[in-house]
Amino acid sequence: MAAQKLNTDIDLINAALTATGNKPITSLEDAESESVVSMANFEAVIGAEFAHPWTWTQTTRRLNRVAGDTDTTWTTAWQVPAGVEVDRIEVNGRAVPWESMSDLILTNEQAEVVAIGRYRPPIRSWPDLFKSAIVARLEALFLRALSEAAAAADARDKAADRLINRARNLDARRRSPRVPTTSALLEARRG
């Protein structure tokens, strides 16, 4: 399986289907059992793995102010970019109080509001190891749902867990502290 060729949801699904002896699909909308199972479960499989805060899903976006009254105690409203799950709001590098309302962020800041959060990049941008783990997870799904091979499905789930753990380990190595600080003891020694 060449991970670089896995650029769409259909590519991921077909890699798993063919590895489990099932026929590939051309669309998630088909009435074939492979398409029905894929359509019903693909988002749940992907969503479960995206619950982890991967570094390659983190984003920083400047928000656009929304005109009009917020009808709340907050003074300004800011539009959240599509697909971004906001974790923190900052202005000039400092965290500020905020509240989420639908697809808006409410603050008392007047300019330079930045959202720090997560988004789901396109599949072609996912790390190869992560793609391989998703294919293994889908293989387990298809072995259970289409082939009724529970033991083989359990083995593929374990393989997917190992791949996800390796991917998390590699991802953790790429992390750097967001706000590097020194200890209070070092600060006191420096005077």
Give short descriptive properties of this protein.
191 residues, alpha+beta, 8 strands, 41% helix
Major beta sheet summary: 4 strands, antiparallel
| Strand numbers in spatial order across the main sheet | 1-8-4-5
* Poorly predicted residue ranges: none
Coarse morphology: flat
Distance between the termini: 59 Å
Number of helices: 5
Quaternary organisation: single chain
Question: How do the helices and strands line up, and which of them pair or pack?
Answer:
Elements: H1 9-19, H2 33-49, E1 58-62, E2 64-66, E3 76-79, E4 85-91, E5 94-95, E6 99-101, E7 104-107, E8 113-118, H3 128-145, H4 150-174, H5 184-190
Antiparallel strand pairs: 1-8, 2-3, 3-7, 4-5, 4-8, 6-7
Helix pairs in contact: 1-3, 2-3, 3-4
Structure, described:
By secondary structure, this protein is α+β, with helices and mostly antiparallel strands. 41% of the residues lie in helices and 18% in strands. It is built from five helices and eight strands, in the order H-H-E-E-E-E-E-E-E-E-H-H-H. The protein has helices at residues 9-19, 33-49, 128-145, 150-174, 184-190, and strands at 58-62, 64-66, 76-79, 85-91, 94-95, 99-101, 104-107, 113-118. A four-stranded antiparallel β-sheet has the order 1-8-4-5, with no helix packed on it. A four-stranded antiparallel β-sheet has the order 2-3-7-6, with no helix packed on it. The longest helix has 25 residues, at 150-174. The chain is flat. The model has no long low-confidence stretch (mean pLDDT 88).
